[in-house]
Amino acid sequence: MNPPVEGETRTFERTFTVADVKQFAELSGDAQPRHTDADEDGRVMVQGLLTATMPTKIGGDNEVLARTMEIEFIRPVYTGEHITCRSTYETVAERDDRYEFTSAVDCENEGGETVLRATIEGLIWKDA
């Protein structure tokens, strides 16, 4: 585990598929027609909470234990769109056994439009 550094940005990119959305619909119970019925281009709308798995993936890679997550869904995401998620440590406080932090998250579509914005507060335990 690399300790968090104030100002450091970590990135994850993903393109959701129709199969991803259908699997999440089964798991979450959010199987609204907008998530199951394809439009004229064969796309379906990605569930907001499925899009929100992008910052949780970054957190999982960094052994984050989230305390709070404030998420704002700005624009819909559709299958086939390439999404880039950036999480930047805004504050980092080192304690004896952990790092406490606040990070700002911004997820954008391939057109550079923000689709999700979040603020996450959490901690990362130091190695024993």
UniProtKB/TrEMBL annotation:
InterPro entries: HotDog_dom_sf. This is (R)-specific enoyl-CoA hydratase. It comes from Natrialba aegyptia DSM 13077.
